[in-house]
Amino acid sequence: xxxxxxxxxxxxxxxxxxxxxxxxxxxxxxxxxxxxxxxxxxxxxxxxxxxxxxxxxxxxxxxxxxxxxxxxxxxxxxxxxxxxxxxxxxxxxxxxxxxxxxxxxxxxxxxxxxxxxxxxxxxxxxxxxxxxxxxxxxxxxxxxxxxxxxxxxxxxxxxxxxxxxxxxxxxxxxxxxxxxxxxxxxxxxxxxxxxxxxxxxxxxxxxxxxxxxxxxxxxxxxxxxxxxxxxxxxxxxxxxxxxxxxxxxxxxxxxxxxxxxxxxxxxxxxxxxxxxxxxxxxxxxxxxx
Length: 289
Prior knowledge:
Layout: H1 2-22, E1 28-29, E2 38-39, H2 48-73, H3 77-100, H4 106-131, H5 138-160, E3 169-171, H6 175-191, H7 198-215, E4 220-222, H8 235-288
Helix pairs in contact: 2-3, 2-4, 3-4, 3-6, 4-5, 4-6, 5-7, 6-7, 6-8
């Protein structure tokens, strides 16, 4: 009788163990206790090289900013300006490639900000200072510092408010656009062989300070992430505008780039003014009701 009860108990334990095995995760299989579990429904992991690709492009962005500084120190200002524009191209590529390959990471975000600080913060200020601001003495380096501080604050605010602000608009002038404004001014001046004199230096002073302060302003600047050109229904219009822009660049690239980015740096204030007028009109209508 005792043996029958013991056998019955052993059968219950064996059945429980078998039931536990049957209830094991369907994502793993093993042939014996020593075998490694085989993943069935696991998602494919991107190769290591895919993870390195966005960071490699960010490194190219960083190198372009460093190259701009080196060229400015050697008084090759046209090459310095072109290097800043090359950094803009790289900055626009790394994030998109990371999203396409699904390799976004917090490290990549921080590394991108550090590279942007060099390419769009330090490099444009040093290029502008070496080109003409140094003729203004302390006013020159003060303008350059205002720009660098504005770029640093702009990048810090962007990183902290990335999930808060409206994605359709940037809060403050983006640092690449500010860098393009200063680099375009230098390129335009060198290309047209404008004399470096006090009036020219003060124009550079105004542009540098304006770009630095606009970066930390609350003016909304169109981000390009939504709107007419992002709609799938208007590819023909977008292609037409791109062809027109390319044709204009072939005529006079420095002038076109400077005018385009100067217009963009003013657009935020126009949008801000229109919003203010609309809000004022709504307040007046509420008072009359």
